Amino acid sequence: MSNFEHSVLIIDSDLLNITALTYLLSDEFNVFTERSGCKSIEVAKEVRPDIILLDVVMPDMNGFEVITALKKDEATKDIPVIFVTGLNNTRDEEQGLTLGAVDYVNKPFSSYILKLRIKNQLQIQKYITHDLSTDTGINEKRESILIIDDDKLNIIALTRILGADYQVYFESGGENGIKVAKTLKPDLILLDVLMPEITGLEVIKFLKTDEETRDIPVIFLTGRRDVQDEEAGFVLGAVDYITKPFSASVVKIRVRNQLKIVT
Fold first, then answer.
1. What is the largest CA-CA distance in the chain?
2. Are 188 and 258 in contact (CB under 8 A)?
3. Res. 132: pLDDT tops 50
4. For residue 89, what pLDDT is reported?
5. Rounded-to-integer distance, Cα 185 and Cα 201, Å
6. Which H/E stretch holds residue 11?
7. What is the pLDDT of residue 45?
8. What per-residue confidence (pLDDT) applies to 114?
9. Of the N and C termini of the chain, which has fewer Cβ atoms inside 10 Å?
10. What is the C-alpha to C-alpha distance for residues 31 and 22, in angstroms, rounded to an integer?
C-alpha cells in the first residue's frame, strides 16, 4: 500500500462501488475497504482512518446503524463520516447529518466533486484539531452570516432558519453583496448562483481575489442542479453546494460544519 498522508476507509457492500472508489482515491490516499457493516466498526477501530466513506443500504447492518455505533465508541467517534449513497431524498440526508455525518453525497457522483468534498472535510478536521489544542474555553462571539440572493422569499426563509443562532445580514444583488462582504467581513456567506446583474460565480471570483474577503467561506445555495455548475463553484473556492428547495435542518447542519473552522 502507498504511504500517503491521509487514509480513507470505504464501507460499501457493492464490490463495483468499492472498486470505483478505490480506483478514484488510491492515487492520493491510503485506501482501506470493508463490505460488511458489522465488521466495518472493528476495521475502523483497527485502521483509525482519517475519513470514512459510508453507504446507507447494506444487508447486514445499514449505514445509519454503522454511524450510530461509530459515534458511540471512543475510538471512532471523532472520525468524520461522509455518506456516499444512492438514497437521494431529503429525509435520508437529514437523518445522516443528524446522526453525525459531515457530508452526504449522492450516487452517481462526480469524481472531481467527491475528491473536493473529502479534502474539504480533512481541512476542517485540521482546523478543529488545532483549535482544540489552543482553546481557552471562552467564546462569546455570535457568528455572522451574509446571504446574497435576489429572491426575497429565499432570504426570508434563510433568515428564519438561521436567525435564532446567528447574526444574519442579507443583500439582494451581487455587486452590493461584494461591498457588504468587505464592510461586514461575515464569518460565512450563503450565495445564490443565478442573479440578474452579476452571477454568483462572478461574485465568488471577486471575493476570492480580494485580500479583505478571500478567506470568508462561501456556500452556494442554488436551484441549479447541474454537475458542471457545482464543479465550477468548488473550483472557484466554495466550501459547499446546497441545492434548492432546501431542508432547514440540512442548511443548519452544513452551516454549522463550516463555521467549525472560524469559531
1. 54
2. yes
3. no
4. 83
5. 19
6. strand 7-11
7. 96
8. 92
9. N
10. 6
Quick one: how far is CA 187 from the chain centroid? Answer: 16
Name the β-bridge partners of 144: 167
Average pLDDT for the chain:
89
How far from 211 is each of 49, 148, 185, 199, 207, CA to CA, in Å?
35, 19, 11, 21, 8
What percent of the chain is predicted at pLDDT more than 90? 62
pLDDT tens, position by position, 13-39? 999 999 999 999 999 999 999 999 999
Is the confidence at residue 2, as pLDDT, over 80?
no
Interatomic CA distance for residues 255 and 129, integer angstroms: 19
Mean pLDDT of 174-190: 95
Amino acid 125 reads Q
Q: Which residue do the cell numbers 450565495 mark?
A: 191
pLDDT of 212: 93
Q: Per the structure block, which three cell numbers stand in for 102?
A: 459531515
Q: How far is CA 167 from the centre of its chain?
A: 21
C-alpha cell at 122: 480533512
Residue pair 63/92 in contact by the 8 Å Cβ criterion: no
Percent of the chain residues topping a pLDDT of 70? 92
DSSP state of 244: S
**Do residues 162 and 168 make contact, with C-beta atoms less than 8 angstroms apart?**
yes
- Are residues 243 and 224 in contact, defined by beta-carbon separation less than 8 angstroms? yes
Nearest to 13 by CA among 31, 30, 38: 38
- Nearest CA to 124 out of 93, 103, 97, 96 is that of 103
- Euclidean distance between the first and final Cα of the chain, in Å? 37
∠ CA(207), CA(162), CA(248), 5° rounding? 105
Residue type, 2: S
